[in-house]
Every structure is written in C-alpha cells, then in structure tokens.
Amino acid sequence: MSNWEIRLGAEVLPERAADIRAFQQAMAARRNGRLDERLFAELRLRQGVYGQRYDNGHRHDGHASRRIDFPCGDVTKGPETLWDAPGMQRIKIPYGGLDARQLEVIAELAEEYADGILHVTTRQDIQLHFVHIEDTPDIMWRLAAVGITTKEACGNAVRNVTACPLAGVCNDESFDVTPYAEAVARFLLGHPDTQDFGRKFKIAFSGCEDHPCGLARIHDIGAVAKVRRVKAGDGVVRTERGFALYVGGGLGAVPHRAELLDAFVPVEELLPTCQAVCRVFAALGEKKNRARARLKFLLKRLGIEEFRRLVAAERERLPFDPRWRTEVEDVDPRDGPSRPAGPVLRVRPTGDPDFVAFVDRNVRPQAQPGYSVVTVALPLGDLSADQARALADLARTYADGHLRATVEQNFVLRWISNADLRAVYDDLVAAGLAEPVAASIVDITSCPGTDTCKLGISSSRGLSATLRSILVEEGMLADEAVAALRIKVSGCFNSCGQHHVADLGFLGVSRNVDGRRVPHFQVVLGGQWSANANATGIAIGAVPARRVPDVVRRLVRAYATERAPGETFRAWVERLGRKTLRERLSDLTAVPPFGTDPEFYRDHLDPRIYGIGDMAQGECAGEMVSVAKFGLADADRLLDEALDALDEGRSADAARLSFESLLAGARALVRAQTFDVPDEPRALLCTFEARFVATRLFWDEHAKDKFARYLLRWRDRKPGPDDAEDVIREARLFIDHAYRVEANMGAMAAHLSSEARA
Question: How far apart are the first and last CA of the chain?
Fold first, then answer.
C-alpha cells in the first residue's frame, strides 16, 4: 500500500479506489509473472498508462525534457518494455472541464513524476509524458482525491466524452450540453455493456449544427442539441430538449462522416439510446482485425437502415435503469459569474496594440451581457507546471474557479467580466500565455508525432513549431480570410491531429530516395472544420517535410489573391480541383541527392539524419482482449486477495473474497454469451447452470461436472469463515477450468467466423 493510498484513501470515491487497487494488483501480478503481458497491456491502457518512444528525446516547442536514465542502455534503440523506461499517463477530463484545484494537482504531478509539462490533447484530455509505470498508482490516487479518473482514458473502451468548450455561454447554442455530456461520461464509465469492444469508441456533444466546437460528425456517436415545440394534452405548447444523434463517424486512414441515426432523441432517451448503440457495436463489431474494428466499418457493412433497426430492437429489450432519468435531471450550469458584469464590448479597445490584438483574436463575447470567454492559446497544446498554476490562479480570481480545455489544444476562461479583461491580459502576459493567435492559422493543432508516439512517422510537432514561427514572421494574420484558416498536422495515418478536416492538413509519411529514407507529408486540402467537421479534404500528394513551409506559403498567397468575394478556402480548392493544385505544387516534390542537400534527409528541428527510430506497434488502440479474459483476470485478483486474507488470519474475508472470485469467473463466461448478466448471486448461478452446465460447455472429461459443482453448491448460502480454505481451493480449480472453457469458446468463435467468411 502506497503512502498516497493511506493518506488519500478516505477522500476517494469507493468505486475509484477499487479501480486503482485492482490496477496495483495487476501490476504486482505482471511483475511476478502471473499475468499475461497482452492482457496486462490492455488493463494498463484502460487506466491511461502508455508506452512511448524515445528516439528523439526532446520536445519541439522549446521545453527541455528532464534527463531520462534508461536501464536498458542504448537510448536510440529504445526500452524493451514499459518497465524499463518512462511512458505516458493520460488523464481523462470529461468535456474538458476542470476546476482550479484540479489543474494545480495535475501541475504538481507533472513536476514530481513527469517532465514538468502538461499536454492538452484534441480530445480535451491532459497527458503527462516521461512517467514511470511504478509511479502511476500514486498519480491515480492523487487525481482521484480531486475527482479525476484515468479509467478508460485509452484501450478498447468509451474514451473521454468531449463537448463544446463554450457550452452554456455560446450565443448560438440550442442549450447547454455540459450536463448531458457529463451524464453520458458517468453512465458509460465502466458500464458492462462497453467492456467488449474491438476498438475504441468516441462520443462528442455540440450545442449547435453550424460551428466546429464539438466536431460531432467525426465521432462514433455525435450528439447535436435540438429544441422542438410540442403540444401537450392540455393544449399548451411547450419546448422539449433533445439531440440529433449521428453514428459511425471517424477519421484515421479511412475517414467517414457520421450518419444520422435519429433526428430527435429526447433527453430522457439519450442514455438508453447510447447504451443500445454500444451493445450493437459490442455484439457485431469486428474483433479480430483491428484495422476494421471501429463502428464506422460496422455501419458501412450493415447500412444505416439495418443499423437503426438493430439499435431500436436493442433499446426495446434493455432492462429499465433508473439512471436513464436521474443522470440527466441535473441540468444546472457547471459554472457561472463570480464578479459583476462589465460594459458590453461594442467597439475595439484602443491604446496598447498588443492588448488590442489579444482582444481581437482571443476574446469572444458570451451570450450573457458584460461577460466574455478568453482563449489561452497554447503552442502545440503544451504549458509548464508554473503556467498551469498561474492559470489556476486566474480562474479563481476572475472565472469562478473553472476553466475548460478545447479540442484545439487550448484552454478557455469563461465568465470573465469585461471590466477585468485588461487585468486578465496582464496576468497572462506575466505567465507567458497571452499570444494573440487563438482560432487562427497560427494556432496549429498537432499530435505528438515522433516526439513520443510509437506510430509517428514524421515530426508533426517539429513541423508545427516551424510553421508557427514562419506564419507570425510573415504577417499571415493581416488578411482576415487567411488568418481564419486552420492548419492541422498528424504524424501518421491515424489522424490524431485531425488533418482531414483542416483547411490545410498534413499527414506524416516516409519515402525512399536513392536508398535513404526521407521525411514527407501528404497534403490534404479543403477539409470542412465548420458545421461539426461535416466534410473531409482531398489528398493532393506527398511533399518532402522541408518543403511544407513552401507549400503553405504558396497556397495561402494564391488563395489571398485569387479568391472570389466571400469564397471559402474549401470552395476555392473545389473550384481549382485536385489536378490543378497538384500541378501547382509539382516542383516542390523533388528531393535533391543527399550529397547536394542533406537537410532534406532531416526532419524539422531534428539534427539527426532521418530514420523511423524505434517506431513500433502503437498503443492507441490496445490489444483485442475478450471480455471473458478481463472477468477471469478479476476473478484471479479476488482469489489473490482471499489468499492474503487467509494468511493474515481473516477467515471471514477470505471466504467472502473467494466466493466473489467464483462469482466473477462465472460472470465472465456468462458475459461472453449475453449482455443480460444477473447481479444477484443466485440468479447468476442459475444462469450459469443453464448456459454452461446443462449444455456441457463447462465440462472436463476427467472431472466430469465436479468443477461446476464447486460453484453451484453455494447457490443457497454464502460460505462462512470455516469454509474459507475449501472455497479457496475450489475457486482455484474452477477458475483454471474457466480459462480453458474461454479458450475453447474463442477457438470455436474463430472457426465459425472463418466458415462464415468462406
């Protein structure tokens, strides 16, 4: 037991404490060789614990990483396992909402356990890099004490639920989606119906159709707020809240725009409908081929009409859950004003040109008169621990103690009185956080790329840092149409930088030239960032990484001079067409020989000759591990606890825990066959008997049904302290045989699947 568990255990919600303890036990089991590495990898990923690459060893934004000692030796080769060198801890922040104390705690953790940097992601998470796995439980305990969990921050699960950071203060929204995003995040966290996915599952909320803040059209479930007028039985017309639900969106190597599942889902039906979608995906989604295991591929195979029918049928058979209503009944605002409103911003401020530029770019009037939203633009999504503390102080002083991360890797401060804008600006200047580039061509979104991601091919952060400098130096903010463009960069095909929906998107690729590798970027133009990312751009071709700044200069200047009045960049791209645009960039695709210009053979801000370094299988998707294996691992964990209790003389606890391990083993097998697993022990055992004993699926030729009887004999009473040793022994035999049954079930399913494909 760690010191932090002892100090903070009483402050942590019981379910979160149980999650962390289970992870600690899994770590111990893996160290002792009792837990398979493949299963442990998915278990740790579901707690947001990643491996990372080390072939760069530095950041591309000026932040120096602390020195890392590698027990495995050669830093260019990379560590053998996550135990050999630090990795990354992802912290789940539903809808991007934080309070000041939470941000301060994350800043403390960044200093104590990481490299002192907080990284904001395109899913409104916060990531800490260069974290040792041995430190992750302490990080989890300290986060849990301030109401934050890392559970299901990664892995084949429902990832962080994102939402518009302006929800509740936006001038154009139908209503504040914050409480509904929070309800979905809370309801689906660890839900039994979301534990058997073949890949990750992403959900987003938007308050309107027109703006990009929620990006609903690129998610597995995208919820767009709607209000309709209905006439009640008494003849009175009332307004009703609901959501247009979109399904099957996603980017990656094969982008798909989400399709409309239902034009209006009333708020009381939001949770059961999301649950039904998850159940269909869990039951019918791909489990073997990771490349085709997202919901978008299932939707493509079935078609939207059949998928809609299956979801409706699943919704009808769902057992009633009172949380469907109780979770969405609390619709009070999550933050509000703490200081009196200031004057309405009708004209630009005068005087200090830097402050004027900041107000122009980074300040947006709220729906509530006298208040504004201030965007804190973070270069590449990074801020230091000291900057995070300064931001927390600002939130306490001026913004009711709350702030939100954005999908563009920034923070916003809401409910800033217009009377305080100058003071807020001065404090941001002091913290080095007042760059006037928010929501502009300079405010580039970038994934980690080759800095830390095992899948990174080209340096997305290095390119982004280079472009930021060039765009500012060359005055690209002077033309409003140009300034409003978005640039997004991904280091590989997975599209974590969302390059498909940018005006100018860049995707890292590699090319061979005369036997040498050369970093390149695929150019994607004309993505639609507005209307919840309603359309993707067109691929023009790959150019050497060194030529990307020239590509940006050429395209931006051409757009500035050639566009028709009111013509968007996307419309300009469509008017010119792929062929013309490719021809305009053709002279930028050539790579000179290495002896002529070796700079082409280096990536941005990296002095070394380019190579793929320790690129390996990425961890963003996790392994495909069956829900039965997870349940059986939990049964093993409970049995280990029972043995510890017996050794300590706690016979009653030993009997209880070993009985729980038996139930967990039975539940794991039943769950592999059906969603409807009874909670009550006697009902669970009856279901197990009907599905596995009567059918002889749970059968050993030598033991006959002996192992099953070890479980079923406790149907009518729970074991007591005097039974502890017997139950522990029986549970061990039962669970060992359950593993064999699970393996046989998996082999049978694979055989049937191959026959069906044949």
Answer: 53
pTM, two decimal places: 0.86
Q: Tell me if 297 is assigned to some domain.
A: yes
pLDDT tens-digit readout, 301-313: 999 999 999 999 9
DSSP 541: E
Residue 349, pLDDT score: 64
Q: Which residue has the higher pLDDT, 85 or 317?
A: 317
Question: pLDDT tens for residues 472-501?
Answer: 999 888 899 999 999 999 998 888 999 999
| Token duo for residue 523 | 């150019």
- Asked if residue 25 belongs to a domain, the reply is yes
pLDDT 10s digits, 433-473: 999 999 999 999 999 888 888 788 889 999 999 999 999 99
Read off the pLDDT band of 624 (50, 70, 90). low
Assess whether pLDDT exceeds 80 at residue 567.
yes
Read off the tokens for 574.
Answer: 């469509």
Residues 449 and 585 in one domain: yes
Among residues 601, 618, 640, which one ends one of the domains?
A: 601
Q: For every residue of 84-115, which 3-state class applies, written as one string? A: CCCEEEEECCHHHEEEHHHHHHHHHHHHHHCC
CATH code for the domain of 423: 3.30.70.3340
- Indicate whether 339 belongs to any domain: no
One domain, residues 462 and 580? yes
For residue 33, how far is the Cα from the chain centroid?
Answer: 30
CATH of the domain at 233: 3.30.413.10
- Identify whether residues 452 and 589 lie together within a single domain: yes
pLDDT at 713 (0 to 100)? 83
Which residue among 144, 178, 199 closes a domain?
A: 144
d(CA 614, CA 57): 12
In a domain, 345, yes or no: no
Q: Which positions ≥6 away from 273 have C-beta within 8 Å?
A: 245, 261, 262, 265, 311, 315
Q: Both 409 and 455 in a single domain?
A: no
Q: How many CB atoms lie within 10 A of CB 28?
A: 13
Query: In this structure, are 473 and 424 located in the same domain?
Result: no
The pLDDT-based confidence of 620 (bands split at 50, 70, 90) is low
Question: Half-sphere exposure of 91 toward its Cβ, with a 13 Å CA cutoff?
Answer: 31
In this structure, are residues 216 and 223 in contact, taking their beta carbons and an 8 Å threshold? Answer: yes
Residues 190 and 294 in one domain: yes
246 in Cβ contact with 159 (< 8 Å):
no
Residues contacting 63, CB < 8 A, separation 6+: 115, 116, 117, 382, 384
* Domain region containing 89: 3-144
Mind spelling out the 3-state secondary structure of 31-72?
A: HCCCCCHHHHHHHHHCCCEECCCCCCCCCCCCCCCCCCCCCC
Residue 134 CA to residue 2 CA, distance in Å, equals 11
- Asked if pLDDT for residue 548 goes beyond 90, the answer is yes
Mean pLDDT of the chain: 87
Q: Please tell me whether residues 465 and 595 are part of one structural domain.
A: yes
- Residues 302 and 173 placed together within one structural domain of the fold: yes
Ordered DSSP codes for 581-621: HHHHHGGGS----TTT-GGGGS-TT--SPP--TT----SSS
**In the 3-class helix/strand/coil scheme, how is 427-459 assigned residue by residue?**
HHHHHCCCCCCCCCCCCCEECCHHHCCCCCCCC
Q: Is the pLDDT of residue 738 over 90?
A: no
For residue 753, is pLDDT > 70?
no
**Number of structural domains, the chain?**
5
Total residue length of the chain? 758
Mean pLDDT of 327-347: 85
Q: Which residues, listed in sequence order, are joined to residue 417 by a DSSP beta bridge?
A: 371
